[in-house]
Task: inverse folding
């Protein structure tokens, strides 16, 4: 906890996913909501097969999901979502002529049944 | 919103994921539940490593997840699920001798903490 | 139902995802919680782009998500989570010098709107 997922469509060649994850993780650390930077587990997946809507025209999206152990307030969740969206907006030059949608979603992880362990730490 | 994910196992060579996404998006537009076709963001992922159950025998699955901003009624969700399942059933010739499971799941997106923006729109 | 997802970072060369899925499915069958082995649909995804925290140093993770039709008790969910974590811990030799985090998360599938069908069964 937390787990961050970033999906991005393959028609965003300027998006460096490694850099994006580092900046997103930095934003999470800076939020002060997480005890240990070590706990933040982020991954990015490039989506090769996608479709935005039904009309023609070049479209793209970046969708970030942040999953948190249940119990945080709506205000905190909203703040985290806005912080991550600000990072995504700023993460690259967006291609001209492409309609790009950026979204951030916050999910709860069921705290009672979440189990974890660390090896070699 | 909405976000549609389609996972399909790699042993379904007749499944054209681009066509499937277009038809699924068309079904969502036709449902009348969404204000703008532009909002529908769909992606498909071919699953190369999978296991259905524990017995031997060729098995496959297609799993569609539709994530909606929270607040829709159970009846609407059920209707959307059934519409998408009907699309999936009809999307290709299913291979003989393979047990194929098709599933549609509807998820809520926490409305309060969801943030988004559009670039170049 | 149930659906099992396993994500694992690409720096875990000893992790055989096929073997892991078979063992995880066997653990689910052995739990006695599921009527038919056929219903268990598991997949694994190797994550090539990831970032754990913000510090330097080699880090890795395995994240298993088990999605169940809503209605099971917290105790059952916790037991399933612990069973799966025990399988993951034992699934390979973990690399020396790498901090590996293993996590298991249990999710509810909205029962009312879940639809499925089987072909060729």
Result:
């Amino acid at each position: 906890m937390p787990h961050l997922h970033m999906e991005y469509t393959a028609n965003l060649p300027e998006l460096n996913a490694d850099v994006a994850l580092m900046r997103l993780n930095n934003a999470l650390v800076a939020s002060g909501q997480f005890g240990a930077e070590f706990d933040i587990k982020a991954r990015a997946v490039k989506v090769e097969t996608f479709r935005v809507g039904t009309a023609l025209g070049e479209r793209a999206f970046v969708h970030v999901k942040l999953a948190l152990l249940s119990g945080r307030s709506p205000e905190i969740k909203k703040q985290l979502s806005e912080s991550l969206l600000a990072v995504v907006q700023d993460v690259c030059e967006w291609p001209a002529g492409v309609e790009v949608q950026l979204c951030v979603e916050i999910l709860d992880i069921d705290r009672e049944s979440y189990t974890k362990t660390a090896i070699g730490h």
Q: What stands out?
A: Residues 9 and 119 of chain A are 34 Å apart (CA to CA). Chain A touches chain B at residues 7, 9, 45, 47, 49-55, 59, 61, 63, 74, 77-78, 80-82, 84-85, 89, 94, 96-108 (CB under 8 Å). The longest helix of chain A spans residues 74-89. Chain A has one domain: 3-109.
